[in-house]
Structure formats: C-alpha cells, structure tokens
Design goal:
- The protein has one domain.
- Helix content is 60%, strand content 3%.
- It is built from five helices and two strands.
- The N and C termini lie far apart (66 Å).
C-alpha cells in the first residue's frame, strides 16, 4: 500500500512507519532482489520494454482497464506476444522461467518441513 498516497498516515508532521512489513511483502522483496541479481541489466531492460510493448497494445492506461475487458485484452496480449521476433520471445520465456525458478525455490525454502529423524526401534530386552 506504500504506493497509494491515500493510505499514508501521519502523526503530527511525521509519517507513521511500520516496524516491519508482513510475510508476503518480505517474500516478494526477497524474490525480486534475487531475480535482479541473477538477470543482467540488459536482459531486465529488454524484458521490461517488451512487457510494456505487450501491455500498450491493449490501449489501456491501467491494469484495472485491462481487467475490465479481460477476454478482449487477453487475445490482444497473446497476439502481440506471438508477433514478436523469435529472439525476443525466447528471452521473455527465459526471463520468466528464471523468475518462476526463484519463486519456487523461495516457496520451498519458506515452507520447508523439518528434516525427518530416522526412527530407531529399541529392542525390548525383557
């Protein structure tokens, strides 16, 4: 909610800050930071430019507008992606695969179960 000006709170002339963010925000922050480390600046730039090119094809100004006409816009998004050159499509898929691999690893780490201890049966000597 930090990007929504209307959710900001003041105490006197000072902003009220959280001591820490929730688990979801921590997970997203960790994921994005790891993705930024593993993907080159050039690849990130090209990826973001391609994403915006795909989104612009809908003529929507907001994600909410894309959602309003989701069926029509989904077709436009898919069509725009399909019409990209092969190298751009390959890079987009590779970058998304890298992001999903990081998400998967972070989920596995977050919900990691304790290691199973081997059950050793003690023989009854009686």
């Amino acid at each position: 909610m930090q990007h929504d000006l209307y959710t900001w709170q003041l105490q006197g002339k000072e902003f009220i800050h959280l001591d820490e963010v929730d688990n979801g925000s921590q997970f997203i922050d960790k994921t994005i930071k790891k993705w930024l480390k593993e993907v080159s600046p050039e690849q990130r730039g090209e990826f973001i430019n391609n994403v915006f090119e795909i989104l612009q094809a809908t003529d929507a100004d907001t994600l909410a507008q894309i959602k309003e006409k989701w069926m029509k816009n989904a077709k436009i998004l898919i069509s725009t992606y399909k019409n990209m050159d092969e190298e751009s499509k390959k890079m987009m898929v590779q970058t998304m695969e890298e992001l999903f691999a990081i998400i998967k690893n972070n989920v596995m780490e977050k919900f990691k179960l304790p290691e199973k201890k081997e059950n050793k049966k003690v023989k009854d000597v009686n």
